[in-house]
Write a structure and sequence with these properties.
Layout: H1 42-52, H2 60-63, H3 72-120, H4 124-144, H5 147-167
Helix pairs in contact: 3-4
């Protein structure tokens, strides 16, 4: 900012914008020493700080303390907190997936039941169980037949029937 321009926020031309900007330090600081405008030269800047009683030659690095080092424990604790949050998130997602899977299973069972009722009428599962029991009994009976003897006897009869059919043509 330039010397002839007023500072932003000044309410009057004395330069005291109010004590609220000073955070309660208005009673201990002389308002005539508070400048709201820039300096015309380096000499004026040094003179202003001399009136305040501060050393201008001190660099900013002298006032800044040693950088705060984050302890390894704090890094591990923050990482642990992140992992806990991620675990909670994954558990919530897994809960949603389980609920959706249960819904899919119940809907499939409902569909299969309604499909069986549509195809087989009342008591479809009893009818299906009867058909499976019948297939089991028939299969057991067919396994006990002497297929070698049956094939040996039936093969010449089948060949003779085919020869007669071709001879008519």
């Amino acid at each position: 900012m330039f010397k002839d321009q007023p500072a932003v926020g000044t309410e009057n031309n004395r330069g005291d914008a109010g004590d609220s900007a000073l955070n309660g330090e208005g009673s201990t600081i002389n308002p005539d020493l508070i400048r709201r405008e820039g300096f015309a030269s380096e000499a004026e800047y040094r003179a202003y700080f001399a009136t305040l009683g501060r050393d201008v030659s001190a660099t900013a690095e002298e006032y800044v303390e040693e950088p705060v080092r984050i302890a390894e424990k704090h890094v591990l604790e923050s990482r642990l907190q992140e992992l806990r949050w991620e675990l909670e998130n994954l558990q919530a997602r897994l809960h949603v997936i389980r609920r959706q899977a249960a819904t899919v299973v119940t809907e499939n069972v409902r569909w299969a039941d309604s499909s069986a009722h549509a195809q087989l009428g009342d008591q479809p599962w009893l009818k299906l169980a009867g058909a499976m029991a019948g297939a089991f009994v028939i299969t057991r009976g067919l396994r006990r037949l002497p297929w070698g003897t049956v094939a040996t006897t039936a093969l010449p009869l089948a060949v003779a029937a085919m020869n007669r059919k071709f001879a008519r043509r």
